[in-house]
């Protein structure tokens, strides 16, 4: 879900550069919630743009994630249709025709 927030209005290439660093610093939602300081997070995600928006989404989504029932990803702050469809495809292994054009292309629709 972190990648979904990072991909919002950003291409995949910058996210592919930032995501490994982010996950090495905070490898779990609990670690991110407990140890991620605002400025440190903003420094890591700065090159993606929309730093204040992304920081808020990451923090609030993480808080939601810690109590989430793992059913509907749209219940997580900042996660919309693309994130929900991605979760269903890649984590729940559901097979359906997604509405998102990139996911449709990935699945061969």
Written account of the structure:
The chain is mainly alpha-helical. It is built from 7 helices and no strands. Helix 3 (29-35) crosses helix 5 (51-65) and helix 4 (38-45) crosses helix 5.
Q: What's the short story on this structure?
A:
With 109 residues, this protein is an all-alpha fold. It has seven helices and no strands.
Which CATH architecture is right?
Orthogonal Bundle
- Overall mean pLDDT stands at 96
CATH superfamily: Hypothetical protein, domain 2
- Name the helicity range: 55-70%
- And the CATH topology? Endonuclease III, domain 1
Secondary-structure class: mainly alpha
Shape: globular
The major sheet is characterized as: none
Distance between the termini: 23 Å
> What would you report as the Rg, rounded to the nearest angstrom?
14 Å
Number of helical segments? 7
Give the domain tally: 1
Highest-level CATH class: Mainly Alpha
Secondary-structure element string: HHHHHHH
Secondary-structure topology with pairs:
Blueprint: H1 2-7, H2 12-25, H3 29-35, H4 38-45, H5 51-65, H6 81-90, H7 101-107
Helix pairs in contact: 3-5, 4-5
Brief descriptors of the model:
about 110 residues, mainly alpha, Endonuclease III, domain 1, 7 helices, about 0% strand
């Amino acid at each position: 879900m972190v990648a979904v927030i990072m991909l919002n209005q950003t291409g995949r290439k910058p996210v592919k550069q930032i995501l490994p660093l982010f996950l090495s610093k905070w490898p779990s939602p609990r670690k991110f919630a407990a140890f991620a300081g605002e400025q440190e997070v903003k420094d890591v995600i700065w090159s993606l743009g929309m730093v204040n928006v992304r920081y808020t989404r990451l923090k609030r989504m993480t808080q939601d994630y810690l109590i989430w029932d793992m059913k509907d990803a749209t219940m997580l702050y900042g996660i919309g249709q693309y994130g929900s469809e991605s979760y269903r495809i890649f984590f729940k292994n559901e097979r359906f025709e997604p509405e998102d054009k990139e996911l449709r292309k990935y699945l061969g629709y």
